[in-house]
Amino acid sequence: MSIRVEREGPVTIVTINRPEVRNCVNPETAAELAGAWRAFDADPDAKVGVFCGEETGFCAGFDLKAVAERKSDVDLTEFSGDGPMGPSRMLLTKPVIGAITGHAVAGGLELALWCDMRIAEEDAILGVYCRRWECLLSMAARYGCPGLSDWATRWT
Prior knowledge:
Blueprint: E1 3-8, E2 11-16, H1 27-42, E3 48-53, H2 64-68, E4 96-100, E5 103-105, H3 107-114, E6 117-120, E7 125-127, H4 139-155
Parallel strand pairs: 2-3, 3-4, 4-6, 5-7
Antiparallel strand pairs: 1-2
């Protein structure tokens, strides 16, 4: 399993557990994340979710090695179903808190923006590095960014 799901009373903690690749999401991880968040939303005893990454940071985006090795058939032009990063198109009925450590870049930023609230370590790095390689973030990130930047403008 490339994710870990833990319960502490009413709190569900979903952790991306791929530190060897800086918690990059491949198609299998995306499917596991979407399934975990669906299960959380359907569980009447779960009240709040916490989303984090194991050891090396939150998430450094989509696993580009999977794309290069043709192990990914993700269609970035298809906007139905789950997003390439897993849950980023989901609308849950319960709050999710993003616990941001290390890097949350490219698709990792998309996952961070999907969370209802983000708590970041002082030295956390959030960014859209994928623009260097002319990769686009999915619709979820593009719609989430304006709200986040508006919030940041008010508090800086």
